[in-house]
Design goal:
Oligomer: single chain
Distance between the termini: 30 Å
Structural class: mainly beta
Strand order of the largest sheet: 2-3-9-8-6-7
Largest sheet: 6 strands, mixed
Number of strands: 57
Low-confidence stretches: 1-50
Radius of gyration: 45 Å
Strand content: 25-35%
Length: about 850
Amino acid sequence: MTACKDSLSGKKAVSATLAGVLAVGMVPAAAFAAEAPADEVQNDGIELLDTTSPVTLFNAGTIALGSTFSPVSGQTNQFTANATTDGTALDLGAVTVTPKGQSAVTATGDDFKVTITKNGTEVKEIKTPGTYTVTVEAVGGDYEGGQVSATITVKGASLANATLFQVNPDNANDVSDTTFTYTGNVLDLGVQVDDKALKAGTDYTIKFVNAGGDANNDPAVEVKNAGKYYAVITGQGNFVGNVKKIANVTVAQFNLASATISVDDVYGATAAKPSTPTSVKNGSDVLANPAEVKLTLNDGQTWDAKGQYAFTAKADGNTNITGSNANVTCNKVDAVATFEYDGAAFPTEFTTNKGDKKPVYFDLDKIAAKDAAGKAVDESLIDVTVTDKDGSDATADFKAHKAGTYTVKAAINDDTYALGGSVECKVVIKEATVVTAENVVVKYNGKIVTSVEKNYDGDDIVASDFEVTVTDAKGNVIEGSTQGLVDAEGKAVDKALNAGSYKLVIENDNVVFEGEAVVPITINKVDLSTIKVGAEQKAWLDHTENPVLTYVQKGTEVADLDLEYQSGTDENGEPVWEALPAAAKVTVKDASGKEVTKLEDEGIYTIEIAAADDDAALNYTFPTEVSITVADEANLKFADNVDSSAWYYNEVNKAAELGLMNGYADTNLFGPNDTITRAQVAQVLFNMAGGRADMDLPEGSYNEIYGYASFGDVNGKMWYGKAIAWAKAAGIVTGYGDGTFAPENNITREEFATMLARYAQKYGNYTAGSAADFAAYGDASVVDSWAAEYVAWAVKGGYMGKNTNVLTPLANMTRAEAAAMVVRYAG
């Protein structure tokens, strides 16, 4: 083995009065816990801060932002704000910096650069909840080189103004229906803030319990029956962290007193009187099951002959329905008429295309009816009405063949009650037939498109972004087109924002489309799966072109990792890297799984990059995880000691830092797994004793011919001569019975414990142990009797035997084990 000289000239001596004993003692390799000592520092001076320089004054300055951001009381450069309810970005306003003791300057123009970061990634705007850093850098002018930052904590948008509304299935943005009435259907209640409908599952979740119940522990209930409910709205996404609770959400009873109640005509002399109505409506509220209402013939009437009868509608015993209505009528007639159109059965739907060469229109005059005997009914007994989609009279438009959708109703009006009945037909008048591929032109961003595809960028696509022109075969523009967006499931949406498939659906009640009138829209996820850690460095300790280690410097803030993702390749096929977007939530965990914000310890860390919110999860593809090695550059002095997970990593570095042990001469190697010799141990202990060692050498120990006198087999002029002479004089070593020391022999673990214990007897606080201190170890009986007291001391002091059930006292000591034991003793 190559001799190693473990003396350090010019280094500070290690005090023998120790601050304490580390919790990890001398154990076999796998049992050592990792620590992170700093490397040796040579001659570090302290440069005094120039408190009068403009840069210093700027760096110590105070930032002021627009009124949207509230300063945190008692804290400098700390602000809070709430995200906007509509998801728009927060305006920083005028950013000013007041350098310490100076006048405020506005951070605009070429002299200043203002950047915003979130989780260490530069972003363009402050929008979603989270923690942001606004940094003002002076890039010119009097304060050039100065930099000051402020932290902004953006909380979720407030739900204070949140209220409930009944969702309109035909218009997701309609929040006007805020009174709720029992209809027999489960009510679909949404949440709105400042007249804007929020997205269930994206902006919030909601739980209803019955009023008077336990909001935390009761299961959620459906809002259906009349009564009072308690709503708990929990913010998500842009509203995260906020909860709105609404008491006394009231579902009113269905009121029959103000309802429109219809009963179909009943025909036949023996026909039973009706017991339930045909339909029950109260404004826009329609009772799902009319049979919940019972009909009772009014006083003074007996169901018998034909005629009109008056009923009272009630729902006795039904707590969901209140009131009564005594004005319900039903006609009992001899027979029900059979309606015809143009001599055939009366249609339920009729469509006319004005673009046809010979369009055929629905002719009201062709409506006819026959009685039970097949005889034509007099036209005067047939009432015909035409209404539009809103139920308003539209007879004039219908007769003028104006394009649109109509309802034509024919009913018998016979005051003799010999005949009754009614029918309805949906009539649609179209302007023309349009071939979508030829006569529907769609422009997006000023360009004609048949489809739209892009990567998610946070900018939404709305129907109004498209310009649609519909023409007939002659090129004449046909008015009346509407357009809307649907998602992949065909559900109407107000915008296409998140990654996914959408369609722009073009409708025009005035035309018949030949072919599907749609524009496919595809928004792709942004792929963040390829990550680069800009803060990584390379160490070339073996003096070759190949780095021994790629690492991040210990002490680096997570925010300074400089994470980027590959957004594509350039024209040369080289990767293009961009900063991670704010949608990426970066979490860094140490080897134990604990989340950290600063890489304070050496070792392997895991970077988890995940969605910052639900929207981000929809729009980005994230890597599973990224591993990095954290090391202290000062500790990377030995090419064979770069793995911070090795049990001896910290101990070897600490031993070098304290000047107790060095590597092999003229190399970058320490030899952690090499055995250590008796001479090397003497040198290590000599280094530990420092200047006191010279005082313990007897006068005349050295002469020019033989060097330091100690044992017969020790060359007093060798590098270890003085150390062995000191160790003998101090009583730390005694040698063998034949007067020799065997300096090049290996040393066992119990011998090392003995020498270290004697050192403690000489220079430290030594408290003797007993065999009981190591009796629990499986090889306790192997410890030699002469070493038992010293091994017991080492175990009791925590220098060896930790986290293991064996001591291996007769095994040769390695250099790493020696480093660990002296470092633990040195505290």
